[in-house]
Amino acid sequence: MTTDTTQPPVEAPTEAPETDVKSTLPTQAQNGEEQESVANGDQEVALEEQTFLLKVRLPDKLPAIKLYAHAHTIVQDVRQAVFDAPDVNGYTCFYLTFDGRRLSEYMELGDIEGFTPDSELVLAPDTYNDRELRVHLTRFREIMSNFGPQPASYGVDRGSSYLKYIDGREEYRADDAKGTKSKGKKQKSAIVTDGLHAFEEYDFTYGRSSLLSDYIPKGAGELETLAPLKSLGLSTWNPSTADRRSDGDLMYLRAVTLEAEVLHVTCCVSGFFVNSSTDEEFDPEPRAGKSWHEHNFAVTLSKASPLFAKRYSRLLQKVQTRNPLEYIATMAGAYPWAVRSPVHTADESRGLDAHLAATDLAEGFGSHDWNEELQSTRELPQGTAQESVMRDQALYRVHSDFVESATKGALAVLSGNAIPLNPQEPTTTQMFVYNNIFYSIGYDNREAFEYVGGDAAAHVAISKDVDGVKMLADLEIPGLCTLGTVVVDYMGQRVVAQSIIPGILTRSENPLVKYGSVDMGAEVASDPAFHALAETLANALHLSEHSVKDAQGAEHKLFTSVETKGIVGQDERKYFLDLYRLTPVDAEFLDEISSPEDSNEQAPQENAYPHRLVLLRPELLKHFYDHKVRAVMEEEAKKKEADMAAEEAADKGEESKDAAKAFADAKPAENGAAGEKSADSEAAEAKIPKIDLRWNPDAFTRVPTSDAPETVEAHKEQVREISKFLRTTTLNRLVVDCLYQNPPIDSETLVRRFHARGVNMRYIGKVMKLAEDLATDATAKSSHVPSAYFLKLCRQEMIARGAKHVLRALLKDTPSYLMRQAVARFFSCFFADNNIEFDVSSTNTIHSRIITKKHAFTTLTPQQVHESVRREVACRFRFAELPEKFWADRSLPLLRSICLKVGLQIEAVDYFAPQASPKPRFEPKHIIAHYPITKHHDPRAVLAEETLETAHISVTAQPALAVEIYTEACTVFEQTYGPVHPDTARAYTGLALAYHRAGDTEKALAVERKAVVVGERVLGLDSEEVMGWYMNLAYFEYLQASTVLAEFQKKATAETKMDKERRDRDIGVGRALKLMKHASKLWEKVCGGDRNLEGASTDTNISAMLSEVEQFATATRFLHRALETQSQIVGKSHQLTITTQEALVKLYLQQGDFHAAVSAQKAVCEFLRTRLPATDDRAITAEAILAGITERAVHEAKLAAASKAPKPKHQKQRQTLQQPQQRNGVQTVTPSAAPSSSQQSQGRSSAGRQSSARSEPSIEELLAFIGEKNSAPSSKKSRPKKSSSK
């Protein structure tokens, strides 16, 4: 049992955001000083317009809890915030009162009679029942485990975060929980600063990029627990008898204290007490004199056991220091693909946990009418901002519960725990109703896809149906309903779960289908009311009306595909379902995969494309419509310019006559005319033409039509034009985007890039060809194109998808208890050479007595697996140019991609370490778990998305305003989704960047930590977004440490000692380097050790941080690696490479290596000479820097030569008085130690000697000249951000 996840996890933050009535609970986005309640300001402001500080008083002399609220905050939200607060000491069963009156949980604060912003609510203990008892014991167990990871149903370590194990920094303090800020207390860091930086033993050769043993940080998942009890479990006297239940007994527990005393505790309606029972004799009466009857279980145990009281108090303190974002329950948690093998220990309390969870599940089973709950929440009013937020919040709650229940039911169906409705039929055609959800397995049950690919087409149609549900749900058309739909992939099977339309499972004389057809057009319905509703849908999706004929030849007008069905339920709602054909067919690709003899759309042949259900993506249709609109606007603009030119020519003669009059009339009305002109121009810009562009979803299908031949051809030509637009314009734009503007790093990002452009993944082979052609053309023109990494990534994605299909087919015929053996065998064969043979005995199992057939995985060989993958790649992506050992390149990223696509968790060990002799790289023990992959449509928080978009626009020009808008967006996202959600995490990182731009690095650092924690839990530990946020966090840590020292230096005098400040700076930079090392480590593993521009940007950022703490040698190596990467990818003459050269010059100067600085600066000057005229300021500055460095290098060389020559005795004595000074670890010469002009007179002219003696620049002078002295590296160079080769 878990607490509600859609509310903020704790009480009020330390800084209240200024929110309007849209906010129901405070955001956790800001950390700062506590603000005064708005109520203390203008007393005349109405209660409905105020955000105030609400105080809730607790019993037992506990400190009151404060949280921000307003008139529209409901009591239930206040109760949930109090429930989640650490300071409530385990109170879970309570109600809130005001002036002695019990408040309804669904009442708004503004509706309470006599309530003012200064009023207080009081927490009062309530009566326990079975449910409240389970909630209380569950919360007690969570505290006892320090909110450690709860055992998941499918996998391990779901929703984990590693941030606190990376830098060892506490993220949450007890002071924050009380709504106050610690005064003058600096937080101690657990970071180990010996050696200062994290890159001392770093491997610059990417040698560990293929290893997995260091993937998980040290100490991850090892929470410190104190074990206040020896054991806690259910008593053997359960369940309570009828007579005892009549007296209020609910449950009996058995606890063994640290004093070795056995306590039998009665859980009753009024609380908990120790009874007189023993293990042999039942006596329910309170123990004489030592029953300790309390409302809180922990209080009862504390009075019964002093050692429990002591340890439990310490445990509460530890709980309060944990960041609630690390453990708050969420349905959006991500499963890590690489984990440690779980260690199983004996714990009697887990039996209690299982009992509580099972009882909850049993009592809730079948109690939901999911369809009614989903439809009723969608119908909630949303006329105001507050109503919109409350509707989105309620809809997300119901949807999350539905997804969780649907996933459990799908696994019950696949495991045989659900009873089918039609048990006499074959397994593939069976249907199920489980927990009021309808289930069917993804096969062509009714032969509806016989002519487009059978089961393969049905598999695709189920996924496309979810896309159709998303399209209709986003339109929010009144009166149009869709079903709750979840697709679950598990053990190679695809199951679709749907809410049940009222009456659809019962026989009725009146047909429920009012629109479309259920038998592929044999009978077609076209109800006029449904047709009118479909017209509204068609106008939004640009669908054209078309005529179809049924088997009797009757004509029907439809807007949607004939396979899309409209049903009227017994609740009188109109439902659209089977929405996979809301987008038209990809005509050009259909022609490509169709052979001449296959023109009548027969089933595809072997080794052909698996199906003919090749549909266009909805994103592409939007891009195509926008493309047409832009073309119309450009044509209108050209026509308007031509008309204006003609009018000007015609009026040219009259202008001279009316010039004087026009001047006189225009002057007094100058301001008004200008305003009208501005308004007219804005109206013209805002006017976007509406074009009637529509497409027929039934074009290029077997649906009989009664439209005129020319109409049919026009429909086909329109659909074909979209397909051509995809294959020409869109694919070219995608290639340019991925190569130059926003290069993807991993497979998941690549897929998002494709889908955002509206490109199906079946085009990945063609995209590779376009990228190769672009690179070939660029090579012919002697320019560089960063295509190598992109081509490798595309090839990896094709291989991973091919392997996914092969592995799914393998698992489909494998029992779940042999899953680990099958997956281990597949991976061992996949990552092995063709000539390797494995011993089949490795697949033996203790279940041999029930295995009745020889499963396919037992005879797998590497050659079979490789040939199967090659066939899949050639078939699905039209690509047959895989290397001979395609599995050997980027092995670790390939393994990661397959695990994420199939839903596998493997042990984090070094699978690809060199082997002395060939042997299986994977064993069954390495396969930890297989979890279900779900696809569904999350409800949108429209108001929050619009607010976030506004913040994005204003962040550059108005950062202070952006902070306010981002804060409001965070508030709405927290209210809708809860704090642990991908969209909330993205809002957090946007707020952190806004704080940074506004100059508040401390708050940026605090908010970015939240983004990282939430991002790790819901996006994945090695997601590209999360790795970028880690780098942002490292930059903020580095900037904060450097800024504090710089501000102190400004106030310091010459005698001020800054050892402590420098030490604090070093600790902050060291923490930043730890974060950077973790991010770069994951980056290298995800990239497979391949070079890319993002990696080069990371190297330059690390170099800047290392140079700040004078680790110049390591900083130089990182810059050299970045320079080498950029030279290989974009060339030595690219601006990125030259920028790195300039950074290298500054780094050499800091070390005093003038000869190397000269070489680097020469490359900069050569680049500027070819790009800029000699009179340009940048070229002049670069030449001056080169001259100064060269002069200093020559001087240093002469000093070095002179130091090696033998000197007279008196000269040696003089040298001891003029020793060079140590500066940054490099010897430099002070002016007093420089040779005099008389000593320099040998071998050169007097004028030259004197000039050299006077003008030799020092290191400080050179650094000051190029803007580096006493200044931290600029954010532009240090801040991790997207690099572009453009």
From TrEMBL:
Domain of life (superkingdom): Eukaryota
Q: Which residues form the Clu domain?
A: 342-590
The UniProt entry, under SUPFAM superfamilies, shows: Hypothetical protein c14orf129, hspc210, TPR-like
Q: Does the keyword Transit peptide apply?
A: no
One GO molecular function term of this record is:
mRNA binding
Bias type Low complexity, positions:
1-16, 1231-1255
Q: Where is the composition biased (Basic residues)?
A: 1276-1286
**Where does the record place the region Disordered?**
1-42, 642-683, 1199-1286
Which Pfam families does its entry note? CLU, CLU_N, eIF3_p135, TPR_12
Q: Biased-composition ranges for Basic and acidic residues?
A: 642-660
Single GO cellular component term: cytoplasm
Q: Which UniProt keywords apply?
A: Cytoplasm
Q: Which GO terms describe its biological process?
A: intracellular distribution of mitochondria
Give start-end positions of Polar residues composition bias: 22-40
Q: What PANTHER family does the database record attribute to this sequence?
A: CLUSTERED MITOCHONDRIA PROTEIN HOMOLOG (PTHR12601:SF6), EUKARYOTIC TRANSLATION INITIATION FACTOR 3 SUBUNIT EIF-3 (PTHR12601)
Instruction: Identify this protein by name.
Output: Clu domain-containing protein
User: Which species is the source of this protein?
Assistant: Powellomyces hirtus
